[in-house]
Amino acid sequence: MASLDYAEPQATIRDDAGALAVALSGSWSADRAPRIEELIGEITERLPATSGARIDLSDVTRLDTLGAYVLNSLKDRQERDGVEIELVSSRPEHSILLAEVQVHDDDPPKPHRHVGVVDILVDIGEGVVRFGRDMVGGAMFLGEVVVGSVSVVLGPRKFRGPSLINQIELIAFNGAPIIMLISFLVGCIVAQQGIFQLQQFGAAAFVVNLTGILILRELAVLLTSIMVAGRSGSAFTAEIGSMKMREEIDALRVMGLEPIEVLVVPRILALMISLPILTFISAMAGLVGAGLVAWLYGGIGPDTFLARLKSVITWQHFAVGLIKAPFMAFVIGLIASIEGLAVKGSAESLGRQVTASVVKAIFMVIVVDGLFAIFFASIEF
User: Fold this and answer.
1) pTM of the model
2) Where in the chain does DSSP place strands (E)?
3) Structural class in CATH, domain 2-105
4) pLDDT in tens, 173-206
5) Where in the chain are all domains bearing CATH 3.30.750.24?
């Protein structure tokens, strides 16, 4: 039986009172595509001299989407040229497949959209509405997270200690090497460019002030937050989204567990603990890179670099970066959780929400950094 199902496709063609009678047989499937193409070519050559054709598929042992699509395409092309084609079969599965392929093949193309002023205004309006809905949804989810956090504090048994430790390991310990490397390289680049520019004014020694303040106040926490948003934030969205697709979150509710307390609170808390640690590591790596370049490229020895750094840097510069870190971590965790819970039932939805999570988190991190910069400048901190 298997050999019949995969037999070579054949077409018996004969004239029937001015019309063409075609009897198909064998396997009309994707693995026989070259032979199918030859047979369709032979049928097409005979059609112009006839008034029409009747193609019988009753003896076709195997018909897949490719075979049905090729036959439907032949029928459509010839009917546009005025030649009537009739596809018949005594097997109902053939008729069903041909009808299904015909439905999808007949889907009208989307009309070309002419972009005008009105269309641009409509797009802007839709974007504003989506932004407003995201803000309202974020505020509601923030309330749920606060309620879940209070519930965990009031009921210590609900606290997921092992989950918290596992998330800290994934975020802080596994993420430290790449953050150290990137911070070291950025420190080297900032120092090199600073020395190159300041040498023109005979002020190369001030590169210590530049790199020290810039790295401790801005670059360390900003680089770390962006890396964590891209690395851990996307992982959170993918994990929660996958659980949503597999209906595991609904299963938690059926078991009497609150998903916010089980999934979201431990992750956000782990981020708020890990990000200050990674910020400090990033700052140290950046300063080491800046000191190395200042020594090798600018002729500023390690002793001189450290002495000048000690005279310039105060505890406030350290504090600024460490104060920003928990707030940025909270924003990253909140956005990652919202996007994860927004995943629908398809893999396309999961990819879309992961992308949205990373983009929104990085954007909000930069916004929060700017707000803190304005705030610290206003209080002269």
Assistant:
1) 0.68
2) 10-16, 19-28, 52-63, 84-88
3) alpha beta
4) 898 999 999 999 999 999 999 998 888 888 888 8
5) 2-105
